[in-house]
Specification:
The structure holds two protein chains of two kinds. Helix content of chain A is 19%, strand content 35%. Chain A is α/β, with parallel strands linked by helices. Among the domains of chain A are: 224 residues, no CATH class; 59 residues, no CATH class. Classes of the chains: A alpha/beta, B alpha/beta. Chain B: It comes from Abeliophyllum distichum.
C-alpha cells in the first residue's frame, strides 16, 4: 500500500493568508519558461499582468481545433456564449498544460490526455446515433439527454416543468428576462486549463433556470452519454464539452441528478470534459446528485463551481467509479451569511485508474455551516485515489461550523491514495474539525460477523459495501440510491453474491 | 455410562446441591482436589440409568465443552492472560464465571470463540467431541457456540436485519436448509423481538449504531434468539442494564433454555444469578479457575468481596 497524507494546514486564528494559498492555484501568469521551478508566491488577486507572455503550443493547437469544430451557424453565438468563448480563449493563451510540478496536479498525471490525438465531436455524428437505446432508462420523469455534449430533444422529457422554469440550450431560450439573468451571471469564474478548454469547445450553454420562489418537485435528471469513442490503444480521444449553468433564484428549489456514462459495456476511449456552474440565490436550495460511471478507458474531467448567496443550501452527493482518469474539481463559495454546504462524495477505483477530487470551499460570511465527507476505496493494485480538500474560513466568517472528514480503504497491496486535507482558518470564533483515516477493514467488525457464523469473505464484502453506503444513502432520491447501490455492489463483487 | 440428571427448574428453584452430578473426568477430579478445601459442593448423586430409558427426566447429559489446562497470551504483547483453565460443561448446565477485573474471564470466552487478539499457548478444548481450537471462528458459531459481546461493535452501513439474515442464512446453508429471503426472514424474526422486548425499528437501524447500552445488550440476546446456540456464553450481559432491562434479558435467556443447551455467563453481580440460576459458579483469579461451587459462593462474594474467597 502506498499512503500519503500531507499534514493539514491549519492556520492559527490570527495568522494572515500565508504563502501556502498559492499552492492551491496553478501558476497561471508566470513569465518564465515551463521548466523553471515554481516560486512560492502569494496569490495574485488582481489580473493586471499582461497576458500572452507564455503560450503552450500544444494548448493553443487544441484550442484551435476546438474552435474550428464549432458549427458556423447562421446567427452569431448569443452574448453569454460569446463572452464565455472570448474569456476562455484569451486565458488559454497564457495557460500551459499542467504537469506534476503544478501543485493541483502533483498526484494526477494527465499525460494520457496530452499524448492522445484529441478529436472534437460534431453534433451530426451524435444526432444520427440518437436511436440508440439510451432512452429506455427513465429513472426520473424529468430528464434531459445530452449526447457527447449536445442536448437531444427527442430523448428528453420536460413537459412537467412548472411555469417559468427553463431547461434547455441557450439557443432555444426565448424569455428575455431569463436571458438577461443568465447574461449577468455567466461566466465570472476562472478554473484551470480544462475549464477553459470547455469554455472554448462548448457548443452551447445548457441552462437550468428556476424563478424566484419556485419549487421543482421532481428532480431533474441530466443524462450525459458519451457515444463516440475510439478503440483502446488508438491514441485518439474524441472530446465532448458539455456545459451547464444552473441558476436558482431567491427561495427556489431544485434537485439535479447528473449522470455521466458511456453507452455500452465495451470500454471505449473518449474524453468527457464537463463543466457545471451553479448559482443559488438567497434562501434557495439545490440538491445535487452526481454519478460518474464512464468507460474505464475514458478520461473524465469535471468542474462544478457553486456560488451560494445567504441562507441558501447546497447539498452534493457524488459517486464516481468510472474513467481511467477521473478528476472532479469542486469549488463552492459562500457569498452570504447563514449558508449551508454539505458535500458527500465516494470514489471507487476498481481497476488501473485514478479517481481524483479537488475540492475547495470558501467561507467568507458569518454563521456558515459546512459538512464534507469524502470516502474512497481503492480495490486494485494499480488503482489510485487523490483527494485535496481545501476549506477556507476567512476573516469575516465568524461562528462558522465547518467539518471535514475523509476515509480511505485500500484493499490491495500497492493500491495508492494521496490525501491532502487542508483547512485555512483566519476567523477566530469558529468550530472546525477535520479528520483523515486510511485503513483496511476494521478487525473488530470482521470478527463480529465471524462470531455470528458469517465467513470472512462475506463479511468483507458486507463491510466494503457498508463503507460506500454511508455516502450512497445520502442520495435524496431512492431510485437513484438503489441504482447506485446496485452498481457499486456489482463493481465490488462481479460474481453473483452467494449469500 | 449414562448419568441421571434431575430436571432442575432454574428460574425459581433454589439451588439444591444434593442433586448434583459431577463429571467424572480426570482433570475435573484434579481441579476439585485442588479446590476441595473450600468447596461446599460435593458430588452426591451419580446414578447409572438403563440406556434404554427415554423419559424426560432420564437422559444422558452429554459432554458439551471440555477445557483442559488452557493457556493463552495476548497476540501482540505476548502477555499471558490464561494460565491453565479447566472447565467442563455438560448439556443443560448453567455455569457462571466470576472474578475480579482483569482475572481473565472475558479473555476466556473470547478465546473459546476464536478471537484473533489472543493466541493459545497450551491446553486443549473439546466441543461436541471436536477440537474447538482447530475450527475457524465462524465454524464455531455455526456449530452452536455463541458469545454475547460485552461491548458490541457498531457497524455503520449494515442494517441489523440484514446482518441477522446473513448470519441466519450462513447457519441454514451449513445445515443444508434453504436460505430465507428478507420477507420470510422478517416473519421468522418478528416473534423473537417480543421475546427480548425490542422495538421493531431497531431492525432497520445499522448494527448497534447509536444504540443505548441496554439496546445493545438486548440486541445481543436477540441474535442469540434468532441464531440459537448449544452453548451461549454471555459476557457481562447485565452490565449497564436497569432492573427492568435486566429482567427482560434474563427472561429471554431462560426462555431459550432447554435441557439440551447450556449457558456460561460472566457476571460481577448476584442479581443476574438470582434470575438465571447457575448449576456451578466458578471463581477466576489470575488466569485460572481457583474455586467452583454453588450460589452460596456468590452470596459470600456479594457480602465480603473476593478477599473472603481467596482467603478461604
Amino acid at each position: 500500500m502506498v499512503i500519503s497524507i500531507l499534514p493539514p494546514i491549519v492556520h492559527p486564528p490570527t495568522a494572515l493568508i500565508s504563502q501556502s494559498l498559492s499552492s492551491c492555484l496553478p501558476n497561471l501568469l508566470t513569465p518564465r519558461s515551463k521548466s523553471t521551478p515554481r516560486t512560492s508566491k502569494a496569490r495574485v488577486f488582481t489580473q493586471s499582468q499582461t497576458l500572452a507572455i507564455l503560450s503552450d503550443p500544444h494548448v493553443l493547437q487544441l484550442a484551435e481545433t476546438l474552435e474550428d469544430s464549432l458549427q458556423p451557424s447562421s446567427s452569431p453565438p448569443l452574448p453569454p456564449l460569446q463572452k464565455l468563448r472570448d474569456i476562455s480563449s484569451q486565458s488559454l493563451l497564457s495557460t500551459s498544460w499542467p504537469s506534476r510540478k503544478d501543485e493541483p496536479f502533483r498526484f494526477t498525471d494527465t499525460s494520457f490526455i496530452k499524448n492522445s490525438h484529441i478529436e472534437p465531436i460534431s453534433p451530426s455524428e451524435s444526432q444520427s446515433l440518437a436511436s440508440l437505446p439510451v432512452s429506455s432508462d427513465t429513472l426520473l420523469p424529468l430528464h434531459v439527454t445530452i449526447l457527447d455534449g449536445y442536448v437531444v430533444d427527442s430523448l428528453s422529457q420536460l413537459s412537467e416543468l412548472p411555469d417559468g422554469v427553463f431547461v434547455g440550450g441557450l439557443s432555444s431560450l426565448n424569455s428575455e428576462v431569463t436571458m438577461k439573468r443568465v447574461s449577468e451571471y455567466a461566466p465570472n469564474f476562472q478554473g484551470d486549463l480544462f475549464w477553459l478548454l470547455n469554455g472554448v469547445g462548448a457548443p452551447d450553454i445548457i441552462v437550468v433556470y428556476v424563478p424566484e420562489g419556485c419549487r421543482v418537485e421532481s428532480p431533474l435528471h441530466l443524462k450525459y452519454f458519451s457515444l463516440k469513442g475510439s478503440e483502446k490503444d488508438s491514441k485518439i480521444l474524441p472530446i465532448s464539452n458539455p456545459r451547464v449553468l444552473v441558476l436558482v433564484e431567491k427561495g427556489g428549489e431544485i434537485g439535479i441528478v447528473e449522470e455521466h456514462t458511456g453507452v455500452d459495456e465495451t470500454d471505449k476511449c473518449y474524453w468527457a470534459n464537463s463543466v457545471m456552474e451553479i448559482v443559488i440565490g438567497n434562501g434557495a436550495k439545490v440538491s445535487h446528485s452526481y454519478i460518474q460511471t464512464q468507460s474505464l478507458d475514458a478520461a473524465h474531467v469535471k468542474w462544478t463551481s457553486v456560488r451560494q448567496e445567504s441562507t441558501s443550501i447546497y447539498e452534493l452527493t457524488e459517486v464516481s467509479t468510472g474513467g481511467k482518469l477521473s478528476r472532479h474539481n469542486l469549488h463552492v463559495q459562500q457569498l452570504g451569511p447563514d449558508t449551508v454546504t454539505e458535500l458527500s462524495t465516494f470514489h471507487l477505483s476498481i481497476g488501473d485508474q485514478i479517481q481524483d477530487l479537488h475540492s475547495k470551499l470558501v467561507m467568507d460570511h458569518p454563521r456558515g455551516v459546512s459538512r464534507q465527507l469524502h470516502k474512497c476505496i481503492v480495490a486494485h493494485s494499480l488503482g489510485q485515489a487523490v483527494f485535496d480538500g481545501n476549506v477556507q474560513v476567512n476573516r469575516d466568517a465568524q461562528q462558522t461550523d465547518a467539518g471535514q472528514l475523509t476515509r480511505s480503504l485500500l484493499l490491495e497491496p500497492r493500491a495508492t491514495v494521496n490525501i491532502k486535507p487542508n483547512l485555512q482558518i483566519i476567523a477566530d470564533d469558529v468550530k472546525c474539525s477535520h479528520g483523515a483515516a486510511i485503513s483496511d477493514l476494521e478487525d473488530d467488525q470482521l470478527f463480529y460477523f465471524q462470531a455470528r457464523g458469517i465467513d470472512i469473505e462475506t463479511a468483507r464484502k458486507a463491510l466494503i459495501i457498508s463503507f460506500a453506503s454511508e455516502v450512497i444513502e445520502r442520495f435524496p432520491n431512492t431510485c437513484v440510491q438503489n441504482k447506485v447501490e446496485g452498481l457499486v455492489r456489482k463493481l465490488l463483487d462481479p460474481t453473483p453474491s452467494s449469500r | 455410562m449414562a448419568l441421571f440428571t434431575p430436571n432442575l427448574s432454574f428460574k425459581t428453584a433454589t439451588f439444591n446441591s444434593s442433586l448434583f452430578i459431577l463429571p467424572a473426568t480426570r482433570h475435573q477430579r484434579l481441579r476439585l482436589n485442588r479446590c476441595s478445601r473450600s468447596l461446599k459442593l460435593r458430588a452426591s448423586v451419580a446414578v447409572e440409568s438403563p440406556s434404554t430409558s427415554a423419559t424426560e427426566h432420564v437422559g444422558s447429559p452429554e459432554l458439551l465443552l471440555e477445557v483442559k489446562d488452557l493457556s493463552a497470551v495476548i497476540s501482540e504483547s505476548k502477555q499471558p492472560i490464561l494460565k491453565g483453565v479447566n472447565l467442563t460443561v455438560r448439556e443443560g448446565e448453567v455455569h457462571a464465571v466470576m472474578g475480579k477485573n482483569g482475572s481473565g474471564k472475558s479473555t476466556f470466552v473470547k478465546v473459546l470463540v476464536g478471537h484473533p487478539d489472543y493466541e493459545i499457548t497450551g491446553g486443549s478444548v473439546t466441543y461436541k467431541g471436536q477440537d474447538l481450537l482447530e475450527m475457524e471462528p465462524e465454524e464455531r458459531a455455526v456449530a452452536g457456540l455463541f458469545m454475547s459481546f460485552q461491548s458490541p461493535v457498531e457497524i455503520p452501513g449494515v442494517s441489523n436485519i440484514d446482518f441477522l439474515n446473513m448470519a441466519y442464512n450462513s447457519r441454514r446453508r451449513k445445515l443444508g436448509q434453504p436460505e430465507l429471503g428478507p420477507i420470510e426472514f422478517y416473519g421468522y424474526i418478528a416473534p423473537k423481538l417480543e421475546l427480548v422486548n425490542m422495538k421493531v425499528d431497531l431492525l432497520n437501524r445499522n448494527v448497534n449504531e447509536g444504540f443505548s447500552g441496554g439496546e445493545k445488550k438486548r440486541n445481543e440476546i436477540l441474535q442469540l434468539a434468532v441464531l440459537g446456540a448449544d452453548l451461549a456464553m454471555l459476557d457481562e450481559i447485565d452490565s449497564g442494564l436497569d432492573v427492568d432491562a435486566l429482567c427482560d434479558v434474563a427472561k429471554a435467556v431462560n426462555g431459550l433454555r432447554t435441557s439440551k443447551n447450556s449457558v456460561l455467563m460472566i457476571t460481577h453481580y448476584l442479581r443476574l444469578l438470582e434470575f438465571i440460576t447457575p448449576t456451578y459458579i466458578h471463581i477466576m483469579e489470575n488466569g485460572r479457575i481457583v474455586k467452583t461451587g454453588d450460589i452460596s459462593i456468590a452470596k459470600v462474594l456479594e457480602k465480603e468481596g473476593y478477599k473472603a474467597i481467596s482467603d478461604a
